[in-house]
Amino acid sequence: MKKVFLIIIVIIAATVIFSKNVNENNSSAYSYTGIKNIKTSMVIINIEVIGSDRRDVELEYVNIPDEIKLEVEKKGDTLSIVSNYKKKWFNGINLSKFKLIVYAPESTDLNLESVAGKISVRGINGQVITSTTAGKQSFENLTGVIKATTTAGDINGTNITLYGDSDFETTAGNIRIDFKNSLDDISFDMKAVVGEIEVNNNSKGREYSNSSGLYRLNTKSVFGNQEIKTSNLLTL
Predict the structure, then answer these.
(1) What is the pLDDT of residue 95?
(2) Which of 126, 123, 153 is CA-nearest to residue 139?
(3) DSSP 108
(4) I need a surface site. Which of 140, 151, 170, 203 has the fewest CB within 10 A?
């Protein structure tokens, strides 16, 4: 009888310890295979996508409470993630800690939306479409086509290689992109309503355009500056 009681105590203790570790890490992960496209429609959740030499897609939920439900649906080679939540429950809560991390093959195409959250993408070779209402966007080590829009937030990019026409647009925020393309690769169509445009450290006023390059770069900011650098400058 004493042995049975001791075993029960050990099992309960182990369960308590395990539960505590899960709560402290406050994250969980799920894996999917055969995915070529990822779409998100998020509210109050930050999105981070990390591309690498892998075959599966792994979703990691960090600090996402039970009040937020993530609905994941796989149709063919497309994975869709949508967030639902109870209105007003998050009043006074630090929303910046809620995050969805996506580990994806580098050839994955992305269509990401977050209403009140940041978007970060790195290591992807494909088409990247992003949209935020109130949240900055950052891109690193990307090759492909980028369509990025935000109402309130900066758009930053480093080590970006374009192989198609791309767009960057913000209503209230700055645009700063470092391209690995040469200056001759890009045709510019840039507009800043209230702000300054700078290309390779040369001031271009509030509008700048040319059509000499292979890929067209469209940028627009209403309240904010724009700074573009290409490999011509970065390798000096």
Answers:
(1) 57
(2) 123
(3) -
(4) 203
Averaged pLDDT, 83-97: 65
Query: Which stretches of the chain are DSSP H helices?
Result: 2-25, 231-234
What letter would DSSP give residue 97? Answer: G
Q: Per 3-state DSSP, what percentage of the chain is helix, strand, and coil (rounded to 5)?
A: 15, 60, 30
| Dihedral sign for Cα atoms in the order 191, 197, 200, 204 | positive
CA 225 – CA 177 distance, rounded (Å): 12
Cα 212 vs. chain centroid, distance in angstroms? 31
Using alpha carbons only, give the angle 130, 134, 136 rounded to the nearest 5 degrees. Answer: 60
Domains of the chain, CATH where assigned: 32-234 (2.160.20)
Take residue 176 and report the two structure tokens written for it.
């700063």
Answer left, alpha or beta for residue 75, where phi above 0 means left and psi between -120 and 50 means alpha. Answer: beta
How many angstroms separate the CA atoms of 184 and 186, rounded?
6
Specify the pLDDT at position 15. Answer: 31
* Model pLDDT, residue 116: 87
Q: What is the pLDDT of residues 131-188, one digit of tens each?
A: 999 999 999 999 999 999 999 999 999 999 999 999 999 999 999 999 999 999 999 9
Residue 162 forms beta bridges with which residues?
144
DSSP 115-154: TTS-EEEES-EEEEEEEEEE--EEEEEEEEEEEEEEEES-
Answer whether 34's CB lies under 8 Å from 105's CB.
no
What global pTM score does this model have? 0.85
